[in-house]
Structure formats: structure tokens, C-alpha cells
Amino acid sequence: MVASQARRAPGRVNARFRHFIAIDWSGALGPRQKGIAIALCDLDGHAPQLLRSPSHKLWSREDVLTLLADRLPEDTLVGLDLGISLPFADAGAFFPGWDHSPADARALWAMVDTICAHDANLAVSSFVDHPELSAYFRRHGGREGVHFSLPGAMHGRGRMRVAEEAQARMGCRPYSNFNLVGAAQVGKSSLSGMRMLHRLTGRLPVWPIDPLPARGSVVTEIYTTLAAVAAGRSAGRAKITDTVALDAALAALDSPPAALPGPEIDDHSADALLTSAWLRLAAQREELWHPQELTPDLARREGWTFGAI
């Protein structure tokens, strides 16, 4: 990128992070995923760029784990488009009524990874088909567990975290992480992401489950629709599949256009590019690091979606 294409992010109040990565994640079966896309931009305002996997093939979840563990640029804020935990606050437990329900998010990650130890490629089939845990999920084939919704629930969307209720108030349509059905479901991707996060323990802090450190790289949960809304699109029109629309959205975030080879782009890549540019601006907003509803107990159990207020 030549110097003439760079911009300074407007109103920069600090330089806590120097690089910004957005990862559109996937929980689909298989060794490599069409649904994984990764984009990187820097503090100086260059256009975001798509990163290629080390093999120059589709990304695998293991490739992403290696990137996060060993290959991040200095002081990177990494946004993962998945739920880093499950609902807890609504029932006082992840799995109410089950004696082995974990106490917090890190214990949940460890449990998911242990139960799925024999599932290749960080998949989670063993967890969602577990003879006791499956009762908490909505699965394919009309299989809705008896604990998918709490007794007396006013809707059939399943249990929500506090952060997801905040997303809904912002005009988004979040799905329960206990829902494994439909094109918009994020349950399997969230659970597979938890396996990866467990394996990053001690190597990369996860905000807000871990306090925000004074320096170094950090990973957090993102919801790409929030980036699209910040760029002037509605939640219902968050997905972008052409470069003209993408460049217009990037311009709204004070970013140069992405250097792409043709007029079309898949929505996973567009989500990653746009959200990395959004992270560059959003990371400087102090209020996004201090949501009013985010207590210490909620942080270690449910986590939070960066940008939800």
C-alpha cells in the first residue's frame, strides 16, 4: 500500500491497538471452510485487506488457531464473529437442572473441548448430540430439546445472553446460541469457537472474560451487523455482495476502498473487510469498553459483544 492511499483515523484518542483483524467464522463440518474470512487493517487508515491462509487454500479452523496463537501483528484487536459463551444470567446456569453445568465461560470452553476431543477440525458434533446436553439445543429434523426455552418464555427464539438482548435493542435480530437450525444460526460456530478459545488459554486474553490488558493483542466477540449499521446500512441489509456497496460502506467508516479484483464479493469476505475497518474506529470509543450492564460476574460467565450498548 503506497503512502498516498493511507489516512489517519479521525479523532484518534489513543494508540492502544495498532492492528485490527475481523474474522468471519464457521462451525460447518469439514477440514476447510468457505465461511471463514479474515481481514486486517492498521491504525494509520489503510484500506483493510483480506488475509490468505498459509496454504493459499480455504482457511481451516486450525489455521486460524495458529494465526491467533503465533502470527498476530503487534498490538492487534481481533474480533471473532461468534458467541464466546452461552446464556447464564437468565437461569443462573448454562444448563439449569444439570449437576455438571460449568461455573463460568472458561470452564464451559474446557468442557466443550473435552467432550469433543475426538471430533476432528474443532467440530462439535459430540457436544450437541450429547445424551444430556442435547436437551438444551434446537437441532435439525425438528428436534427441539425440552430445555431449549425456559418455562413461561414469551417467545420461541430460545435463551439469550444479556449482550444479545442489547443487540436486539439496537435493531439487530440475534439468535440464541442454543439454536443450531437455519442459515442465520450461530450455535455450532460459537461452540467450535469455544474449542479454539480454550486452546488459546494463557496465550491471548479474551475481553471481557479477561480484563483489558494495558498492552498486547486481545480477542473479543463481534457481531458484523453492528459494523454494517455503523456504516449506514440497516440490520436487514447488512449483507454485502458487490464491491460498489462495500466501498460505499467503507467510506462511511472513513476507510479507503478495498482493492478487489472484480465487482462481486462473497458476504463472508465483505463482513470481514467492513468489520475490521469498523473496529479501527470503535476501539477508540471508551463507552464501548464499559457497557452499563456488564458486571464482573456477567463478564466471566457470558462475556459480551463488543459494540453492543
Brief summary of the model shown:
The protein is 28% helix and 10% strand. It has helices spanning 61-70, 105-115, 125-128, 162-169, 187-199, 224-230, 243-252, 267-282, 296-301; strands spanning 19-24, 37-42, 49-50, 76-81, 138-139, 143-144, 206-207, 218-221. The chain is globular.
Structural notes for this entry:
- The protein is α/β, with parallel strands linked by helices and 309 residues long.
- It folds into 2 domains: 167 residues, no CATH class; 91 residues, no CATH class.
- 28% of the residues lie in helices and 10% in strands.
- It is built from 9 helices and 8 strands.
- The protein has a 6-stranded mixed beta sheet with strand order 3-2-1-4-8-7.
- A hairpin with a 6-residue loop joins strand 2 and strand 3.
- Helix 2 packs across helix 5 and helix 6 crosses helix 8.
- It is globular.
- The chain starts with 18 loop residues before the first strand and ends in an 8-residue tail after the last helix.
- 44% of the residues are buried.
